[in-house]
Write a structure and sequence with these properties.
This protein is α/β, with parallel strands linked by helices. Helix 2 (81-97) crosses helix 3. It has six helices and eight strands, in the order E-E-E-H-E-H-E-H-E-H-E-H-E-H. The protein has a single domain, classed as Rossmann fold (3-Layer(aba) Sandwich), CATH 3.40.50.
């Protein structure tokens, strides 16, 4: 397709793969996504945004973190919050250097992808970009709050020893949520993996403007059709609000 470009870039010596979705408009603002722990660039929310955002004149970039999807790397040895944060920043840097979008950027992250966005936020502010906002779904800020740790293997990765989580995925980035602004947070109050208390922590610490959406009886995967529609409508509106240039807000 004319407005869909396959992208390859390097992070930590690995070749990562992604896809850039462009609207018809010239130099559009950009949203970059980070998928969950076991996800990929083809995760459901990423696919939805790849269609919705370009339809509203916003570019969207989705990619596979190291060891996931089509990207190089070993899931067990190349996965941690810091490593994914490095991937995320490398992805954004590469896309901006293509000069196919403006330097107005917002971020999207689901589950661990949301934690990646939070962890990267301060470093993104130090880059030569106009950081406009974020949408986070079911994002953990305290890894020890995570329930039902997924040790069993599946089609995306091998079985994982508990030591993998103890070595690679112990983090508490609660304080970093205080750097956020223009953030919309989605979480289900029946999430059995990442407790909704994480969303409340993010909301309490983030700068206004901010918005917290708690889906009643919502689960971690946002399987409810009504919840997904709510996410789609509110996410597009949120990004359009901050890309409009009319109400840009940064913390004082």
């Amino acid at each position: 397709m004319k407005n869909r470009i396959d992208i390859e870039f390097k992070s930590r010596g690995f070749l990562l793969k992604g896809r850039l979705h462009l609207p018809e408009t010239k130099n559009p603002p950009l949203v970059i996504g980070s998928h969950g722990l076991e996800g990929s660039k083809n995760s459901a929310k990423q696919m939805v945004l790849s269609k919705l955002l370009p339809a509203h004149n916003i570019a969207f970039f989705r990619f596979d973190h190291c060891g996931c999807g089509q990207s190089q790397g070993n899931f067990i040895t190349d996965t941690s919050l810091e490593k994914r944060t490095t991937d995320f920043i490398a992805a954004l840097d590469h896309i901006l250097k293509l000069n196919k979008t403006s330097n107005s950027v917002a971020v999207f992250g689901s589950s661990m992808g949301g934690a990646t966005c939070i962890n990267a936020w301060q470093r993104l502010q130090e880059m030569d970009i106009h950081l406009c906002g974020a949408v986070l779904c079911s994002a953990p800020v305290k890894s020890r709050s995570i329930k039902n740790i997924p040790l069993e293997g599946n089609h995306n990765r091998p079985s994982l020893p508990l030591s993998f989580f103890e070595k690679n995925l112990l983090f508490d980035i609660t304080d970093k949520a205080a750097d956020l602004f223009n953030v919309m947070i989605f979480h289900g109050d029946a999430d059995m993996i990442v407790p909704v208390s994480n969303a409340k922590e993010i909301y309490a610490r983030a700068h206004a403007p901010k918005h917290l959406v708690i889906h009643k009886n919502g689960d971690h995967q946002m399987t409810s059709k009504a919840d997904r529609r709510d996410f789609e409508d509110k996410t597009v509106s949120w990004f359009l609000r901050w890309f409009s240039g009319l109400n840009q807000t940064t913390p004082q």
